[in-house]
Amino acid sequence: MERSHIFDSSILKACDIRGVVGEKLNEVDAYFVGKAFGTFLQRDKKSRSCVVGRDGRRSSKKFSDKVIKGLLETGINVTNIGLMPTPVVYFSVKHLNLDAGLIVTASHNPPEYNGFKMLTNVDPVYGGDIQKIAEYSKNGDFCSGKGTLSNVDIKPDYLNFLFRKIKPQRNPLKVVWDCIKLFLITWYLNLTYLKKGSEIYPPKLN
Fold it and tell me: Please, which residues bridge with residue 47 across strands?
């Protein structure tokens, strides 16, 4: 494995790192995103913990594995929450009292894209910080350590959080799910609480 890595400049966006998989973005990039972000967290933010999640794109699992490997090698303690919507990563940073978060996703972009959104427990990582992460990777200037990995099922905590925000209604709630990302069906199947006294309109799949 190379000791340093230069990201294609086109994937260094204002608010994330993102590109077409197999053309501008690959598993090597994912590994060095982990190493560079882990270094950034320790040197610039004095942070040692990070939650990692991923969306349902075909490349996301492999990218997540590589980014976790890079984070661990810098000494960052990683909490892996697996396949989750982006807001759950933000929730997990606060709920689990962690220093930072990263999700493998390309947001609204077409399926051939993927990328990485990053944040600390204070604010999102963007602009000059993304350029600094790229610079750490280019120079091979990484922290070294041996972080720990834990796998957490955050769904029950997040669903309970949502339910506490739903006030009792005189009439049943009518809930419509937009499952454009198929993994959200697993959330639909977990909403046993909402099913009590509510009307659920499930997704229709062709």
Answer: none
Measure the CA–CA gap between 112 and 90, rounded to whole angstroms.
Answer: 24
Alpha-carbon gap, residue 115 to 16, rounded angstroms: 7
pLDDT tens for each residue of 155-179:
889 888 887 887 666 677 676 665 5
Strands 17-20 and 49-54: unpaired
Yes or no: say if 138 and 4 are a contact pair by the CB < 8 Å rule: yes
Distance CA 68, CA 32 (A): 10
State yes or no: is 10 an active-site residue.
no
Residue 83, CA distances (Å) to 4, 152, 155 in order? 29, 11, 10
Any idea which residue has 């790229």 for tokens?
134
Tokens of 184: 């959200």
Quick one: pLDDT at residue 187? 59
Cα–Cα distance measured from residue 46 to residue 23, given in angstroms and rounded to the nearest whole number: 34
**Average of per-residue pLDDT across 10-29:** 97
Report the alpha-carbon distance of residue 125 to residue 100 in Å, rounded. 10
Q: What is the Cα–Cα distance from 172 to 20, expressed in whole angstroms?
A: 44
77, 48 contact by CB (below 8 A): yes
What average pLDDT does the structure give for the chain?
88
Residue 12 per-residue DSSP state: B
Catalytic residue among 59, 60, 64, 107: 107
pLDDT recorded at residue 165: 80
